[in-house]
Amino acid sequence: MNFLQLNDNQLIKQANLINGQWLTSNNSITVYNPATTQTLGEIPLIDEQTLENAIGKAQESFISYSKSTSYDKSLWLLKWYELVLAHADDLAKILTQEQGKPLAEAKGEILYAASFIQWFGEQIKSDHGLTLADPISGKSFATHKHPVGVAALITPWNFPAAMITRKAAAALAAGCTVIIKPSELTPFTAIALAELAQRAGFPVGAINLLTGDGAMIGKKLCQDPRVKKLSFTGSTQIGKLLFEQSASNIKRLSLELGGNAPFIIFNDANLDAAISALMQSKFRNNGQTCVAANRIYVDEQLKQPLLAKLIEQLAQLSCGNGLTEAVQLGPMINTTAVAKVETLVSEAIAKGAQCLYQADTKQLGANYYPVTLLTDVTPEMAIANHEIFGPVIAIQWFNDETQVIAQANASEAGLAAYFFSDNIHRCQRIANALEFGMVGINSGMVSHAISPFGGIKHSGIGREGGHNGLAEYQYIKAHCYAQLE
Ligand code: SIN
Description:
Layout: E1 16-18, E2 21-23, E3 28-32, E4 39-44, H1 48-65, H2 70-86, H3 88-99, H4 103-123, E5 131-136, E6 139-147, E7 150-154, H5 162-174, E8 178-181, H6 187-199, E9 207-209, H7 214-223, E10 227-233, H8 236-246, E11 252-256, E12 261-265, H9 271-283, E13 293-299, H10 303-314, H11 335-350, E14 354-358, E15 372-375, E16 392-398, H12 401-409, E17 413-414, E18 416-420, H13 424-433, E19 438-441, E20 456-457, E21 460-461, H14 466-471, E22 474-482
Parallel strand pairs: 7-8, 7-10, 8-9, 10-11, 12-13, 12-18, 13-16, 15-16, 18-19
Antiparallel strand pairs: 1-2, 3-4, 5-6, 6-22, 11-21, 14-15, 17-20
Helix pairs in contact: 1-7, 2-4, 2-5, 2-6, 3-4, 3-6, 4-5, 7-8, 9-10
The structure holds succinic acid.
């Protein structure tokens, strides 16, 4: 089967979806498989005029789409959900080939992506405003929710499916039309999802998808007043730029930006559970997640047992092409990503970190970085202050609870944090003290469709998923009724 084919033999188009039409362009971008560096296909490099037209069409469609009933929107979303499930294996294959994560993990992402469509498809039917207690005699108040308008969704390469549905399903449930701009590194999963959404019966123009130069598209989407909402997942650096570019329109923003998650193992932790969660958090998507355990703090009393158990588990990890069965870690997305991790690791070693384990991936090619274990990392090292975004465990030892919490909080990032302890009092104390949007307590995973995902400080604004995710695409209007005699 062609990698761009769904199981009904229809090819996924290498094109953009604008107002129900699949369009190509004169210029294109080549998409590669990071595992093999072979070409997968071409996608349009959209020009500014086409983008201008697409925004106009999305605005026109908003006029009718925003009036759809909550039952209609729910039906379209739940049909889309069913189609994603029915094509989960094909979608996973597309995802693995353009992103690199192993097939089983890619299938997991497709199911995770589908869960957002289901969640918002169900939530919209029971979403309601409030009637407020009468504060003044003869007057009453009620709140109504309205879709904000055209929503632009800029999504990253590390989760080519789930980051689209977490935004798009919420926006479509709220009654917004959407313009999706997937990463040019991983556009085909997005195109396949948009194709399935079309088949689910969404009205023409409700879902639009564009590919091309991120800087040009991002700036235009920020500065065009017809786009009322921008939701972006990606680096803090780009998030700040989009924030600035959106200022003149006072655009509604959701920014899900970088993390630098502390993962703290206290001396009263269940060590086996902590190590298993650390492996899961660190090696999901080969370390390329914004919620990955990044700064690993371990009580120094646990040094010997932790290292012995951890090295044993690291040695069992298999790395390679994600389509090969039993592979647990795929390639990095590209050589730039590899070079960044290499620099962080070399700098840490030059400053005194110990490299206690490093796998050998040389024969796999330039896009692979070996699983690495560093200890004796200190807060001054760059590796403790940047998202590693790769398969490197960097451990700092500690012996004082107050000090380790101060260190964990001493970061501009505030996305996710994790800690392990068997003491309920400590669990409550630490969960309250950590300054992060999401805290895993004896858990290495914090993501679920039902729970709000997002950060504080430089990790962004807004929440995705859960009850809060829908509100990001709505504004509240208060009605004040006076009772006339
Ligand atoms: C991300 O790393 O960008 C998202 C991870 C998640 O949703 O769990």
